[in-house]
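Example S7 (structure tokens).
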């Protein structure tokens, strides 16, 4: 099996969040750009990606896209950073489809721009290759799954089902917002259509070569003021 070559693989970060639950924290900026101890949350994600040798990053923007564009045009973080702006909300799946023309690699890493799970992207990529997976999701342990929805695996780590935010808060595995796609999967998403990865696309692939990589890394998200405060305390 060939080694996982991060320099040859694109990374796509979903940055279209409105941050409505964050109130004043995100009033003038997209949710991924909220301040974490003096720098945007998105910088933390990019720093993690770059630490594994990735050099080409595509930011899927929407709400207040210009804020992101202005910041990263002035603050070069990677060898190549591109912007894929959606003119109307397309959902997480629609945003990836909108960026399809910019993706040059046969597979790509995708990250939610409003959560952080410091998974080893090298080990994740090797898992994806070993399983000959079409789509791999990094999964985190959670004491209660009501906020995230739980993911069910079989003995081979193939994903056999989802329970999206309707469980009763039991312990389980949750979607960490870190994915590895075979790029040709994007042909299954209709262009210009609003599509949710979590609710529409992932469930449609159950039983079709989708695997879950279980990590011990903790999942942080910044969706509420309380969770943002936790992130600021931990991401120092």
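Recovered sequence:
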């Amino acid at each position: 099996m060939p080694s996982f070559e991060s320099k040859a693989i694109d990374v796509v970060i979903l940055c279209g969040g409105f941050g409505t639950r964050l109130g004043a924290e995100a009033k003038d900026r997209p949710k991924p750009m909220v301040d974490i101890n003096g720098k945007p949350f998105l910088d933390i994600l990019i720093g993690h990606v770059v630490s594994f040798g990735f050099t080409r990053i595509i930011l899927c923007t929407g709400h207040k896209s210009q804020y992101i564009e202005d910041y990263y045009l002035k603050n070069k973080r990677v060898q190549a950073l591109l912007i894929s702006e959606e003119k109307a909300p397309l959902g997480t799946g629609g945003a990836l489809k909108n960026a399809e023309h910019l993706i040059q690699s046969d597979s790509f890493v995708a990250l939610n721009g409003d959560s952080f799970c410091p998974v080893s992207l090298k080990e994740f990529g090797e898992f994806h290759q070993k399983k000959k997976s079409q789509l791999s999701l990094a999964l985190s342990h959670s004491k209660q799954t009501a906020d995230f929805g739980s993911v069910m695996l079989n003995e081979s780590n193939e994903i056999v089902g989802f329970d999206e935010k309707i469980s009763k808060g039991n312990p389980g595995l949750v979607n960490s917002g870190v994915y590895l796609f075979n790029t040709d999967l994007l042909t299954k998403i209709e262009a210009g259509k609003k599509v949710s990865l979590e609710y529409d696309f992932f469930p449609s692939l159950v039983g079709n070569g989708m695997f879950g990589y279980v990590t011990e890394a903790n999942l942080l998200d910044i969706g509420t003021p309380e969770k943002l405060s936790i992130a600021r305390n931990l991401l120092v």
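Notes on this example. The domain at 7-234 is CATH 3.90.550.10 (Spore Coat Polysaccharide Biosynthesis Protein SpsA; Chain A).
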